[in-house]
Amino acid sequence: MAAEAAGRNDATRGPANSTEMEVRLKEEKMKADLEAPLPAGQEDFAIRCRDVCRSYGKLKVLNNLNLAVPQGQIYGLLGPSGCGKTTLLKCIVGTLKISRGHITVLGKPPAFPGHDIPGKKVGYMPQELALYNEFTISDTLTFFGRIHGLTSKETQARMNFLIDFLDLPQKTSLVRNLSGGQQRRVSLGAALLQNPELLILDEPTVGVDPVLRSKIWHHLVEIVKTGKVSVIITTHYIEEARQANVVGLMRHGRLLAEGPPDAVMKQHCATTLEHAFLQLCETSDQVDSKRDSSSPDGTLDKSQSFENGKDESQPILGVRSPPAEENLKCSVDWKVRARHVLPKWRNIAALMIKTLVRMKRMPGSLCFQFLLPVIQVSLICLCVGGDPKGIQVAIVNNETSPSAFSQSFLSFLDNSSVQQVNLSHKEAFEGIYNGEYWSVIGFGKNFTSYLTKRMLQRQVSQEIIDGGSIHVWLDQTNRQIALMVQKKLHQAFQAFVDYKLGGMAYMVALPIKFEEPIYGSQNTDFTTFVTPGAVLSITFYLAVGLTALSFVLERKEGLLDRCWVAGVSSLETMLAHLFSQLFVISVQIILLLLMMLLVFKNPNEGSLVLVIILIVLQGVTGISFGLVISSAIDDEQSANQAALGIFYPNLILSGIIWPVECIPYPLRYLSLVLPQTYASEALRCIMYRGWGLSRMMVWRGFAVTLGWNTFFLILATVILKLRT
Ligand SMILES: Nc1ncnc2c1ncn2[C@@H]1O[C@H](COP(=O)(O)OP(=O)(O)OP(=O)(O)O)[C@@H](O)[C@H]1O
Fold it and tell me: Domains, the chain, ranges and CATH?
């Protein structure tokens, strides 16, 4: 149409020049040739694409493309790099959705419920290697065999054949130790494994030596002879496609020509397919430039023509557009639809075994994963929340007598925490200004007599009050140390007056009596507060770390697509990851609890079962959150940034290291909806108050955790589904 339109425009302007005439003649001739009916028996198509469009953002990659792969034949899809071949294959197998048009594969649209495409009817070899590097050849084929539901006997038989046919090394060889060519052959083997009805091979012969290349083509020719297997293959070696029954020449997202290789060469009077293709490209360019120059203003904007989708849509040669009858409405029984949606345990088991085998092959990494939480919780128990030790304080004591009160008082000061250094007034102040001491404690030379007067006389002068006081100058730059020094001084004074006054001590003591605590003990330290929240946080973030990269790497290596084409659904992928990581976090949690309760003697007044369930649920929430990151983000760096970026704000806002009550109000609402705020509180209530699920503060910790869990899992499944 575009060519006709261009022709009409030319006709109004005057006779076309001789080059244009030649182009048009060539075009007409080729059109007539390729529009000739196909030989009998080719009316059945394994694949039909009609007016298929697909864009990446504004880049229109497939442009009203029509293509038909006859049943039981080899179709060679040829075209320069970047013309859209891989995109088309991905649309055919259903890993990419088309923006417009229709595709039928073996009679039904891709991903049609119960059709097994994606599934065992199709063998797909993507352009990327899409192999697990830690697997052996045998593991690889066994994994795909499991997904396709082959018995181990069938898998073994096919494996032996493929190893022999593809000239592969021993089946116990690790994929990562194979050469590039060998790896590609293993990838081809995985596509051929289940004897699929449809083989979709994206450049299977790249990096393969000519002898094996010819062997592969020979095999393809053999398997299509039965008429039951169809093959679509892309290759950069145009000449090898002469062995195909039909070739399609693709450029700029549309098919320039489609037909048997001999016919294509004949009509271009070319001796090779490559020449024929070159000529087609030239003709296409001439038609394009002619169309450009015939636009009203002489400069047709190419992107505009792409946008309206009309000009570019028409193949310059007669590519047979399948009839409209293929707008078939396929109905499907609800049971089949339900089976299609429900996860298959076979696939989940295969994926879980895969993850466990990969873990087994990386024992160092697995041990590290098991030990990391134990190390982290040990560090927290050892280093956070305890009393500072060995704090140097300068003592300026102007009393010299050994029986002086000051000496007695200082003997009650806890020596493990406070290290006393006796100095002169000048040295002590120089030292504290130079940061050598955290405090200066001073006693006047009449401290003993003045303190006695303060204690016993009803009224005393200011001088006596001052002289009978212990003077303390603190370096308040470290609040914890300053608080500790103050606390130790109070304790020492209490012990001193108890010793000096015995039953009369009440006269100088603060009239506040702290009774036995209702919950916890008098000596509860900050570690006790931090540990439960820290345990949840460690479990959550290790689980995020375990999963955040899993899909990112698998997607990048084409493994997700390959599994998806083999019939694995997003939900199955998600559940398999969840279950296999559950194993890892279970071991982590057991080690962590042993360390916390038995080694560091953290108190637990409540149900250990509730404690374990809450920690496991937090781990599962971490896995689910990791799956969200993994499904939404494409590269490792961004996934790492997302996981790390969320770590600090969440830790600070969840009331783990400092009470939520300190958070100013608008921010506190945010804090309360985070996954670990109520959960940490619930864990503290179980462990230190011995509360159970009947208490709101406990059950709401579980409820919030479960809520986040469900939300993350659904979100991850939806994102993964939308992106495949
Ligand atoms: N995920 C993507 N996002 C954006 N653009 C993409 C994406 N994948 C492919 N493209 C672009 O789409 C165009 C077609 O790519 P495609 O991989 O289908 O080409 P191809 O014909 O298979 O090339 P080759 O033979 O080199 O593999 C290219 O311009 C490519 O840059």
Answer: 2-112+242-323 (3.40.50), 345-381+525-723 (no CATH), 391-507 (3.40.190)
